[in-house]
Amino acid sequence: MSTIPANEPTFRESVDLMFNRAVALMDLPPGLEEKIRVCNATYTVRFGVRLRGQITTFTGYRSVHSEHMEPVKGGIRFAPSVHQDEVEALAALMTYKCALVEAPFGGSKGGLRIDPRDYDEYELEQITRRFAYELAKRDMIHPAQNVPAPDMGTGEREMAWIADQYARMNTTDINARACVTGKPLNAGGISGRVEATGRGVQYALREFFRHPEDVKVAKLTGKLDGKRVIVQGLGNVGYHAAKFLRDEDGCTIVGIIERDGALHDESGIDVDAVYAWILKHGGVSGYPDAAHTAEGATVLEAECDILIPAALEGVINLTNADRIKAPLIIEAANGPITAGADDVLREKGTVVIPDMYANAGGVTVSYFEWVKNLSHIRFGRMQRRQEEARHQLVIDELQRLDEVLGDQWSMTPNFKDKYLRGADELELVRSGLDDTMRIAYQSMREVWHDREDVHDLRTAAYIVSISKVAASYRAKGL
Ligand code: NAD
Q1: Do the beta carbons of residue 110 and residue 135 sit within 8 Å?
Q2: Whose CA is nearest to atom 39 of ligand 1?
Q3: Which of 219, 256, 373, 406 is the S-S candidate for 178 at Cβ 3.0 to 4.6 Å?
Q4: What topology does CATH give the domain 41-187?
Q5: What is the pTM of this model?
């Protein structure tokens, strides 16, 4: 089951076409272009698990796109649509994404062809552990070589099983926990990882709206506050992005598209209430406080300021691209726009904030988690109280001033509490993520605005990341 129409290039071909558009504008040494584009290796594993009295055979993949830096990194997806082409496309995007946000990894991706909703928790654990075993015994899960993370259909629970499976197979590896990221906090995870990709989407939009010239290109005005948003896929990425934009940035969520149709309400939808409804009822159907349409995809074409596809690849394709009204699309999912649709949207003047940047929050915080696991210490543990003690010195001085100046000056209420508090791990993670998203955006927009032959953020993003990968290869003497 693919969302990409049969007459359009496959997901991997789409990624390659976008890559080709960028390298045509670059001056790479002969042959290097192809070396960067091709996928180094894709491993297919077929394994049996005894379930409900019989052996069921599963098919899984782990693709390594580029080893210009190691370990390679990329999520593991559980979905019935998983196949080699998809995993290779996603692995390639990981290479470019890591390079763009300067996470020191090559690109990889994994997938298991399974609908997780068909199995109970115990069965899923057996399947996940067996898949992890098959990959780990071939070093396709390894703290120094290949570090998976969550993706569609997987989350903290699956990552904890994978970490434990690796640890059982490598009992003396002191860095075993760094073999996978996205783990629960009590199993070596990091604060802020669950919501990191959605948080990254929010930070990306905040950075976009800090540049009035860019906002103008999207034919929008003003700030993020008050913008009308439609989101497709209220899973990990879509839910957190929509929630943060609504609760913290004053956006109104006017549409939510899910598997079983879409909700639409111009006055705004309560994201948390819909999320709770989906958990209980398995979909958005029947949700009482917004109009429901069974033809969910039509809501992609509804009026809004910002469209956030956060579900599957290829949902904006040649069949609907010309009807998309959103002037700004942020690709929270990987590859939601096909290469053909990308051309149509560019012609129309739609601004697309590309996937390799927009959803890089996940791998960025995964990078922090990996570093935390290798250093065996929580971020902030050494300096937090020392920082507070130094701030106390300033507060003491200000308090003296307060007493001397009496009526003329006093400290702002709350200042003391806010200033005194040293940063904990979550604050440090958010700070690191925010910094990463700002710097990466600026590197893309510089190319977008400075080069006359670059007309969109995606091409700019490819140019920035391919340059970095090329520099790594050159440094290796290739
Ligand atoms: P998820 O499984 O948590 O959520 C996916 C959501 O999309 C679910 O709510 C599902 O019901 C919905 N969905 C599925 N098919 C749909 C359809 N046809 N129409 C509308 N909705 C549909 O997955 P996720 O982790 O949120 O990943 C979503 C996208 O974000 C994927 O493209 C993934 O590769 C990308 N991504 C995820 C992460 C991460 O950290 N989880 C990081 C980077 C990129």
Answers
A1: yes
A2: 151
A3: 373
A4: Rossmann fold (3.40.50)
A5: 0.96
